[in-house]
């Protein structure tokens, strides 16, 4: 049996990413630059054999997955599906607002001076989820336990299904905070990976119910794809 490896990709850069708006369950399409970077990523991954592919059900993740599969040598033959469990956190009434609103109010709720002070003191994801709920005037934000259950079961079910069916590589397009949170569930010593690049690849190996982190925020596939594109 082959090892089971997840290639977890942060979606391409979107309109909201570009203008600094909070994008949880709200959604905007990739920009032209975002599409171009993901095409490079697709070229960089075109020779990687994927048994199957998934994305969250958010438009930006589905758009990213489609571009990668279009560039792949065997993209049309790779089974692809969506899973709502691996979508981004919901920021409630702060969703769609400027990043400064979210990262302005959350530190104050947690009794920190500002965002930098909060990150220096290394808050937990539960602290963050609780603060988002406190700031959310619409009562849409998810409690920590619900986020934990859906994110873990989403990725674990995908990995377990692949392992059960002979192993191999799975391409998964998800979201920055969701990927960062998953990493913390695997290894709680890791700092928050808030700065994951759009189009970066985080690679995990799965065996007998356990994940191992291989690489985080890897952008070399994009660089390789850019080289391939410029050679033609």
UniProtKB/TrEMBL annotation:
Tell me which residues are marked as the site Transition state stabilizer.
175
Residue numbers binding substrate: 10-17, 60
The positions flagged as active site in the entry are 11 (tele-phosphohistidine intermediate), 88 (proton donor/acceptor)
Annotated Gene Ontology cellular component terms: cytoplasm
Any one Gene Ontology molecular-function term assigned to this protein's record: phosphatase activity
Q: Name one Pfam family in it.
A: His_Phos_1
InterPro entries in the record = His_Pase_superF_clade-1, His_PPase_superfam, PGM_Phosphatase
Q: What is this protein called?
A: Phosphoglycerate mutase
The organism's taxonomic lineage, starting at the top: Bacteria, Bacillati, Bacillota, Bacilli, Lactobacillales
């Amino acid at each position: 049996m082959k090892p089971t490896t997840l290639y977890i990709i942060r979606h391409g850069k979107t309109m909201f990413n570009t203008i600094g708006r909070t994008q949880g369950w709200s959604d905007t399409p990739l920009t032209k630059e975002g599409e171009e970077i993901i095409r490079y990523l697709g070229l960089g991954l075109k020779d990687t054999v994927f048994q199957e592919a998934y994305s969250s059900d958010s438009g930006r993740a589905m758009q990213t997955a489609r571009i990668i599969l279009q560039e792949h040598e065997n993209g049309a033959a790779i089974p692809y599906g969506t899973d709502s469990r691996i979508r981004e956190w919901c920021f409630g009434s702060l969703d769609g607002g400027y990043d400064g609103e979210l990262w302005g109010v959350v530190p104050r709720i947690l009794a920190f001076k500002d965002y930098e002070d909060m990150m220096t003191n290394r808050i937990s994801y539960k602290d963050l989820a609780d603060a988002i709920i406190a700031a959310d005037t619409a009562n849409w934000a998810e409690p920590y336990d619900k986020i934990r259950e859906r994110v873990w079961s989403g990725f674990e079910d995908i990995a377990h299904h692949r392992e059960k069916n002979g192993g191999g590589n799975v391409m998964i397009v998800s979201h920055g905070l969701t990927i960062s949170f998953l990493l913390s569930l695997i290894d709680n010593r890791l700092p928050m990976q808030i700065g994951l690049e759009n189009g970066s690849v985080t690679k995990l190996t799965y065996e007998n119910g356990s994940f191992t982190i291989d690489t985080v925020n890897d952008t070399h596939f994009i660089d390789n794809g850019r080289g391939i594109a410029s050679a033609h």
